[in-house]
Amino acid sequence: MIEVQNVTKKIGDKVILKNISFNVEEGQFITVLGPNGAGKSTLFKILSLLMKPTSGVIKINGIAVNEGGIALRQKLGVISHNSFLYDSLTARDNLLFYGKMYGVKKLEERVREVIQQVGLELSFYQQVKTFSRGMLQRLAIARCLLNDPEIVLFDEPYTGLDQQAIDILNNVLKTLKQRKRTILMITHNFEEGVELSDRILILNRGELVFDEANLYDLKSLKEIYRKKVGISA
Amino acid sequence: MTFFRKALAIVEKDIKAEFHSKEMLSVMLVFALIMLVIFNFAFDVKKQIVNDIFPGIIWITFFFSGLLGLNRSFFIEKNQDCLLGLMLAPVDRSVIFLGKMLSNFVFLLIIEILTLPLFFIFLNIPVPQKFGFFLIILFFGSLGFVAIGTFLAALAANTRASDILLPVLLFPVLIPVILGSVAATKGVFFNLPFSEWSIWLKILGVYDLLFIVVPLMLFEILLEV
Amino acid sequence: MVKMERGRVWDYFLGPLAYVVLSVAIYMVFVVAPEEKMMGVVQKIFYFHVSAAWVAFLAFFVVFVGSIMFLIKRDYFWDGISLASAEIGVVFTTIVITTGPIWAKTVWNAWWTWDPKLTTAIIMWFIYLAYVVLRLAAGEEEKTARFAAIFGIIGFLDVPLVFAAGRWWQKTFHPIVFNNPSGGLDPAMKPAFFISLFAFTILYIYLLVKSTRINLMQRELNRLKDMVKEKIYG
Fold this sequence. Notes:
Distance between the termini of chain B: 27 Å
Oligomer: heterotrimer
GO biological process, one term (chain C): cytochrome complex assembly
Largest sheet of chain A: 6 strands, mixed
Radius of gyration of chain A: 18 Å
Number of helices of chain A: 7
Number of helices of chain B: 8
Order of helices and strands of chain B: HHHHHHHH
CATH class of chain A: Alpha Beta
Family (chain C): Belongs to the CcmC/CycZ/HelC family.
Largest interface: B-C, 34 and 30 residues
Structural class of chain B: mainly alpha
CATH superfamily of chain A: P-loop containing nucleotide triphosphate hydrolases
InterPro entries (chain C): Cyt_c_assembly, Cyt_c_biogenesis_CcmC, Cyt_c_biogenesis_CcsA/CcmC
Largest sheet of chain B: none
Strand order of the largest sheet of chain A: 6-7-8-3-9-10
Membrane topology (chain C): Multi-pass membrane protein
Keywords (chain C): Cytochrome c-type biogenesis, Membrane, Transmembrane, Transmembrane helix
């Protein structure tokens, strides 16, 4: 599904990622953990096709990213701590706009579908600036689901969420997992989402220091993290 | 064709957002009007000189209030990281440039159409015989302004000094458009024969073409992360 | 580093060469070349004014080329050259727009004429000052180099249009034709003129080599500082 082969990223003379390799199989849920400055967000940018690696290859469904071009973005969905939503637009107009950018078919119906999935029907015609943080995140999830992505990338999705929004996000993760979507989550937060994942990767100083199936409970996972990274979670 | 459809989707989005908030257009409009009043007093505009300085006055007003719009244009994209959202979508970077440029063009034209009658009224300017020509100049002058303006606004918005940097970057590069628009407008209002000022339309045309094509090519590099 | 050391040979050669040719140029201009009948001694400014203008234009062309090369190769050597050349270009443009008025005041009794060449010079001055300001404001090193390169391309493409617009502006609104001194250059003045042109060019190359090296060393120094910081603070 996603193959990352010997990816190295240098910015100027600084090596941000050192020779990273891992595969993500279809329907797998992977969590990438790591402290600040470990290269998590660079890895996220490379996987979301925003940034080209200095060397190494990334393949999605067997197609190398630099050959697949922008069409590959069609298969990707991204949920970040920023919502990517326009304040002055209504929920509906936001979704319609992004739907057009992704070339979604039967757009009006699809928009209604995703807004029901996140339970925001009643705020369909309201401007996004009136939304609470939780509602915003729900709409961001709806936005991400518009093009029915095969791969969903989460970048620190729990940052700044209240408990209700966290529950919704967890539900979305579960649903995506049931529907065999490939999920890759980048986070430094152990409390949420981690127990759902099939596999754990730990990044430290640009290197992949841990890559194993998630057979651990939270406590032993934290212990591993402390050993590998040198600081406690 | 999807290229233009998606660019137009960006324009539609910008117009809808502006229709809801009305922040940008109202500020641009009020600014243009206060400029009109300021010019009137600053130059103590009398009948004898008004014809000479009128073309300069309207273009300075349009470009300055256009500058406010340009600064705003990428501000709304940076809020909530929307620009990143656009960059993640399966569209070419040049679509984003074209869309933003066209919506800035629409906003500038709206301001021009709304304020122009007031200029004629308050400065007592007779409407020129060849008003159609003037509209053509308005079109090409404004297009050149938003083409390079949108590009440099995107550049400035990604620096630390975002909004104060734009005028310093923009106006030197804009000199040919400023000279061209003002000179051609003088040609129309002084009722000079077309052959005497048509060269300015050519200069504007070349400028517009150059500074639409080059930014389209460079926008991908500008938006690298 | 090897490239740097090898380049140093040029310094030892270019510095003295610049000194010698500039001295010859000054001698030629003030001693050998005849005094112009109409304008008198002030005409001597012409040799330096035009040479400075040539160097300024050359310098900005080098910024243009360096910018394109940086965007293709992403090698900071090209960024170093572009920055050096832009700064030198601004200095020489400053010479152009200060010597211009001194000459104009004596010859046409006006400090400033919006002659298309002077207009282009002063607009170039603003464009490349903006280039320097942009570099200060951009942020991280990579972004600074990338944005500067983009602006270096845009700015240079604008120059011919500025010149064309300046020329037509003068033709339309100030149709007084100043007799152009460079057109009717007396054959006896030509050696002095070409030698100053040559001397200024050598001076430019010398400054470019030096300044580029300083920029690259500055970069190296910053990199080392970052490494030290990382070692200390982890």
